[in-house]
Specification:
This protein has 227 residues and is mainly α. Helices cover 69% and strands 0% of the residues. The radius of gyration is 19 Å and the shape is globular.
Length: 227
């Protein structure tokens, strides 16, 4: 293993996993899921009053998903164009990576949601549901939720962290744009879903982690030279 590749592993996998562990531990120890959900629930008069209003449901929830699909469609069009223009041939593999990484991250989040069956906040009696409150670790063992972990809607933003690795393959400074914008979008989508009672903050954290690690592994497989 070359020195550069070892550094790549530490920078993009080892350090993020350590950060994930620390953040998850902090959320568990301070019960941040419950603290934030309590605050958002009380803010709305101990009901999820903002669950189905226009700006949360139509603009951010449905609109965010539509925007992600439109960007994916544009990416697919660029990939197809690379097969029609010889001067774009060098972009085929990076564009193929981008499509596989964004779609794969979202699909993996959806599969985990179904498999883990973790509850949404609104399923707990504390927030208007019927279940006794338990933290995410306990919920994974109980397996009695409707499938809310990791956060699916936040992945519409977080899946695009693949843009960081897309631009990294070109050694371009645009990689920072490809990192900051998707994380910001995922955070906005995630906070809106928390305001609707659909997710806890830990759900969003793990959605980012899944998308990031999947994008990195695919980057190593498809784009990283000398790996």
């Amino acid at each position: 293993m070359s020195v550069n590749f070892r550094q790549c592993i530490y920078t993009h996998a080892v350090y993020p996993l350590c950060a994930l562990f620390i953040a998850s531990l902090a959320i568990t120890l301070w019960d941040a899921d419950k603290v934030l959900a309590d605050y958002f629930y009380a803010l709305q008069g101990k009901t999820w009053a903002w669950k189905n209003i226009w700006w949360t449901e139509e603009f951010f929830h449905k609109g965010g998903r539509t925007a992600s699909l439109l960007i994916a469609t544009a990416g697919a069009a660029l990939l197809i164009s690379s097969y029609c223009r010889n001067d774009w041939a060098q972009h085929r593999k990076p564009l193929s990576y981008l499509m596989f990484a964004t779609a794969g991250g979202s699909v993996l989040v959806s599969l985990l949601k179904s498999a883990l069956a973790v509850s949404c906040p609104w399923e707990f009696a504390r927030y208007g549901g019927i279940l006794n409150y338990s933290n995410v670790i306990e919920q994974i063992v109980l397996h009695n939720g409707k499938g809310c972990f990791p956060a699916g809607h936040a992945s519409a933003g977080y899946a695009w962290v693949a843009l960081y690795f897309f631009w990294l393959s070109y050694h371009s400074a645009w990689r920072w744009f490809g990192l900051i914008v998707p994380i910001a979008a995922g955070m906005v989508f995630g906070i809106v879903q928390q305001l609707r009672g659909a997710h806890f903050i830990s759900h969003d954290l793990w959605s980012l982690a899944v998308c990031w690690l999947f994008s990195f592994l695919l980057y190593v497989f498809m784009l990283k030279e000398g790996s």
